[in-house]
Amino acid sequence: MAPLASTVAPPAPAAALKLAARAGRIAVSATAAMAIEAERLRAAGRDLVDFGVGEPDFPTPAHIQAAGVAALEAHFTKYTHTAGIAELKQAIVASHARDFGSSYLPAEALVTVGGKHALFNAISMLVDHGDEVIVPSPYWVSFCEQIRYAGGAPVIVPCDEAKRFALDFDALARAVTSRTKAVVLNSPCNPSGAVFSRDLFQAVLGLARQRGFWLISDECYSRFVYDGEPYSVGSEPASKERLVIAGSLSKTYAMTGWRIGFALAPEPLIRAMLNLQSHVTSNAASFAQKAAVAALTGTQQPVADMLAEYRRRREIMVAGLAAVPGVACWLPAGAFYAYPNVRRLLGRPGGPRSPMEFSTQLLHDAGVVTVPGEAFGTSEHVRFSYATSPSIIHAGLERFAAFCRTLLK
Hints:
Elements: H1 30-43, E1 49-50, H2 62-73, H3 86-100, E2 109-112, H4 115-126, E3 132-137, H5 141-149, E4 153-158, H6 169-175, E5 180-186, H7 198-211, E6 214-218, E7 243-248, E8 261-264, H8 267-278, H9 286-297, H10 301-322, E9 337-338, H11 355-366, E10 368-369, E11 371-372, E12 382-385, H12 390-408
Parallel strand pairs: 1-10, 3-4, 3-5, 5-6, 6-7
Antiparallel strand pairs: 2-8, 7-8, 9-12, 11-12
């Protein structure tokens, strides 16, 4: 007897993957792309010097680690309030007042999964389709991607390299239109290391009040200032109305993997950001929040020690870069990045024509990891992180100088 014919329909041909339109608005971070390629080369046995990722090489200070371990041992591993534990929110506003003279309340604070998360929450809740957000260049890689993801349009205002990447207030003011929803300022700046003046912040804040847009201040590197005192625009009188501060413990306390950041903003905006966070991540890791309390309320000596070491490394890095023919480099005023101009090394016969090609060739030929300037909105620069040991900096500079000599032949 012949078997019965199957009544099950054959599977439909696989359809082409169709992503949501918003997926096309963002691209992978160039920092991440270079890190991925570097990891591929390491897996193949290459010896690399890594100036790419901006991550402190210091261990998390011992008292912070101990607080995290104590939280684990006390089984503090359950959900917390989405906005963060009360103890941490109080520590955030108290430490910001201590460091900068601000006067925030715990209800005006939100604990986030890193500083990047604070920025994403704020931009998502403020920026709508058709809105414009002014971003000085060079800029941190994620600003424009987050703005585009929210449906907004970044409006780029170049900083003046001849003035150590200073931002001209008049140029920024000319970029403001009826569609301007926010201005994003990052000081000290990643990648340039520029530190914007108090006068500039005051002027932008005044313009924000006058024209009705928001000032978003990224304070990720706020404690790492080499000359003068650290500053936050949140210390200005009556600054809260049009201001969002995004902060992070990652760089200040060498806690990148702990993923603790925060936002300070008017309470209605904090509530809106909290609503979004409740559907995305819920709370930051419970035990990491306890460690963050120890970081903010305990001794600040490790921060001072790291800053002193970064100052020493800055001198080594910038002196080494500036000594290379064809390379020009300002001394950064903050953060832990150098941003040399390599324009005179581009476009030579057989050589790289752009920073992207320069960084790629430097990686493959010399084993030095950097991040090309296109990631930050410029076309003549390469970013070097000096958050690594002096011996590694010296070794990498030797390779870099040898690579540049081959381009000048």
